[in-house]
Amino acid sequence: MRYFMLLVLLASSAILVDCRREVSIDCGFSGDDAYYDDRTLKIYAPDAKYIDTGANHELDESYVTGQPVQAQNLRSFPDGVRNCYTINDVTQGDKYLIRASFLYGYYDGGQQMRDGRSLTFDLYFGVNFWQTMNITVASHLYISEIITLASSDYFSICLVKSGDGIPFISALELRQLDSEVYKDVNQSVSLRLSERKSMGLDQTIRFPDDIYDRIWQPGYTSCVATSYCRDARRNSTVLTTTALVEVGSDHAYKVPSAIMQSAAVSSDDNTLILSLSNGDDVVMAPMFYVYLHFAELRAPKRNESSIFQLRVPGSRPSLINISLEYLVARHIQRIYQANSDPSTFYLNLTRVPGSLPPLLNAMEAYSYVDLTKISTDQGDVDAMMTIKRLLYHTEWQGDPCVPVQFAWNETKCSFPISTPPRVTSLDLFNRGLKGDIPAAIGNLSAITYLNLSRNTFTGPIPPFLANLNSLQTLDLSGNQLDGSLIDVLCNRQANGSLRLRLEDNPCYFHGICVCNKRKQKHSIYVLAISIVVAAVIVIVLLSVFFLGGRRGKKEPSKRQPKWRDTIGSSFHTGSPHFTYQDLRTITNNFERVIGKGGFGTVYYGRLHDGTEVAVKMQKRFLAIEEGISEDFMTEELGSDSHGIKEFQVEAQLLSRVHHRNLVALVGYCKDGHSLGLVFEYAAQGSLKDHLSDKNNTGRVLSWRERLRIAVDAAQAGLEYLHKGCKPPIIHRDVKTSNILLSHNFEAKIADFGLSKAFLTDAQTHVSTQAVVGTPGYVDPDYHSTYRLTEKSDVYSFGIVLLELVTGLPAVLKFLETGHIIQWVRQGLAQGTVADVVDPRLQQQQQCDMYSVRRVVDLALHCTALNSNERPTMTEVVMQLKESLQLEIVSESSTRPYGGDVDVNQSGTTATTSINLTELSDPSAR
Ligand SMILES: *[C@@H]1O[C@H](CO)[C@@H](O)[C@H](O)[C@H]1NC(C)=O
Ligand SMILES: *[C@@H]1O[C@H](CO)[C@@H](O)[C@H](O)[C@H]1NC(C)=O
Ligand SMILES: *[C@@H]1O[C@H](CO)[C@@H](O)[C@H](O)[C@H]1NC(C)=O
Ligand SMILES: *[C@@H]1O[C@H](CO)[C@@H](O)[C@H](O)[C@H]1NC(C)=O
Ligand SMILES: *[C@@H]1O[C@H](CO)[C@@H](O)[C@H](O)[C@H]1NC(C)=O
Ligand SMILES: *[C@@H]1O[C@H](CO)[C@@H](O)[C@H](O)[C@H]1NC(C)=O
Ligand SMILES: *[C@@H]1O[C@H](CO)[C@@H](O)[C@H](O)[C@H]1NC(C)=O
Prior knowledge:
This protein has 20 helices and 45 strands. By secondary structure, it is of the alpha+beta class.
């Protein structure tokens, strides 16, 4: 039974020892593994896992002889104001001794101590000031130690620049103490060590003699440093014993038995005077927590007692009698408060008449340190630390909010009076962050402002953002977020409690993270459009039905003429034939030139009924007109019929295809040498003229007008040519100068001279050796393959879109790379879409950057080098339609119509709605 008890005792004490938490860190040790130090009998770990900043230094051997091995290297912190070690896995409420050691050892060649300067920096325990380190002796090991209760489950020990000195540290040790020891330490009181001395010993002792690994300095010392190693014994002698000293009632102090077996005794038999020092601190109102450890080592004679008086200024009572039992330890705690501030403080032990002279085994003096400033809310700190780890953001050191002077730049905090500070704002704008939005952000429950814009966050918009109830601003713009938006966020945006920014995200372009409010409006709008369109279609069908074919016969141009495979020998266009004389009359003797190009010249004309027309005359005709010989002409134009062929192609084509966004052929002329085509007149000239403001109208096309032109050209023109015609037609010369604008800015695609129709359905491209198209617009694929497909038109159209956005021509003379694609890509890489948008649009302040960004992305997609990656014209049309619809919705929701742009709201809307739907159903024509 007894044996069993012993076993239990042994086991439990072993567990006690094992369970006491301790951490030993050799700061600046560059090895990978922890090592066993046979001097301290402890295992020291490298510090890399406790800190992510600073630089390691090895000290020169001459400075480290006799010093602990941990002091032979150090970590210094030249960068940043505050750098912190974080020690995890401590238990909140437990009592710990934390010790930091510093040995300068001229690691930097003595830079910082030249001319007798001292090296100073501050030590912080978490958010609280711990001590100013004043390193004056390079080869001295400075030690600072505190005893405190853990207020959280980790400790943060920070080195802070306070002067021009670079903070450094040699070792960091943490030892758990039993909670009964040093009872003064509680949540509001922490202690910083001033002195700990064994009065009767000549050597320093610590673990394993001291189970807590306290370091006891000898009472007699031969220190080089002045104040730190004061001789506490005056007029005393040393007494030792080998007899065992009982631990007494305060067993928790666990003062090493070697210390309890030796003591200093007053040598004049009257008074033992202790002088106290305050370390290197300059303390104006000194207050010491004094712990005195006694054991009577002298066997008392029969009528002798061991009683003496202790006088401690400021303590209540200031005078107490201390009686000791033979070989029983006794521990006394007093608080010393000096009224004045002398440089040395004394504790006097005075003999009581009839008693033995006073004696003392050991003493400790601590000063009070206020570590009560509360650090930021634990949840917020944990979240920020997780974010920091995920982002590899080493600039974030210590607490995010306190002390205010070291608070992180990216955070803002609130400071409630009685509760911990909270992180209320986090700004991670443009920090190159990648991956998912860290879930830890969802734990910042007090946050009101969250800016994650201009990073490359991917994935869906995380639902935890909806749990941040205080959030007032959420900026996610300029990321790669996809997926839909949580309703909660939408509702909060709708009721004005949340400012939400989502533009420049894929989800935004797909419309799925656009808020319901907008979506609903949008769908209502679409519904309204559909109804209007349906009504219009019904009316049109009815009128066609009732009014019958008469009308159809009157307008032959609307009939689908029969396609002829052979181009050329005779024009059979179904269009009126004009004589040369007719054209002369119509154009008032070719009076006004409205266009000029490789094909010839275009003149303004007016039919007898007043209809305005454009008359395009072939070059050969001009040559003759101007009296140049036909021989010369032949040379200049190359082998004959090139130009004539183009004319023929265009005439054939336009007589076959009819669409209100293709320029309509009114008639033709083949009269001797004269070849001419008569077109409907585009009153506003070409898109190119407008973008370059060549016609000097000073009128800037609004973003919405540009979008409409793009939709018209894409949907009505090109998609129709590609999909609506059998065989499909490739325009081959899509460019802004071939997009004409009617008087109400309706786009009309012109110039089909280079167009080719696929001969059969199976043939999906046109092979040609001739140089086609216009520099800047030609599909780069063409140069290697000599094949032009529908995707070549898509490419050219992409360039047109870029011109619409930027207002710049396709080929840029001011740019080395010379091309608008490079210019836009470069602009986007270095800035935002706002940097590439036509500045004239921005002046008008009437373009939604989101809508612009969609179009830019679409344009870049269209101009992909690999033609397989380019969208089809049908896809282009769909995307442009979406953009236009959103633009209309946002326009009508954000501002009322001014009189400047369109004729009237309903008229414009109706026109647009028909445009949007007309070609998705080709049969409607
Ligand atoms: C550091 O200590 C030296 C010498 O004791 C003293 O002259 C100097 O004022 C101290 N510096 C600070 C900042 O306390
Ligand atoms: C801590 O102890 C001091 C006395 O040393 C006492 O005045 C104070 O109220 C205690 N604080 C707490 C939080 O227990
Ligand atoms: C200490 O002892 C010396 C003689 O050894 C004596 O001169 C001196 O006055 C004593 N000091 C005190 C404070 O008792
Ligand atoms: C201390 O002891 C002395 C002498 O024995 C006595 O006069 C005095 O009252 C005692 N003081 C206290 C506080 O016990
Ligand atoms: C303690 O001793 C010192 C040094 O001898 C003396 O100056 C001081 O007055 C003494 N204090 C008391 C309370 O006796
Ligand atoms: C104690 O006894 C010794 C002799 O044995 C005597 O000299 C001394 O005066 C006594 N002291 C007291 C306080 O009674
Ligand atoms: C934070 O702000 C301070 C003061 O404005 C500046 O000195 C420091 O460089 C900033 N740090 C970062 C990482 O921006």
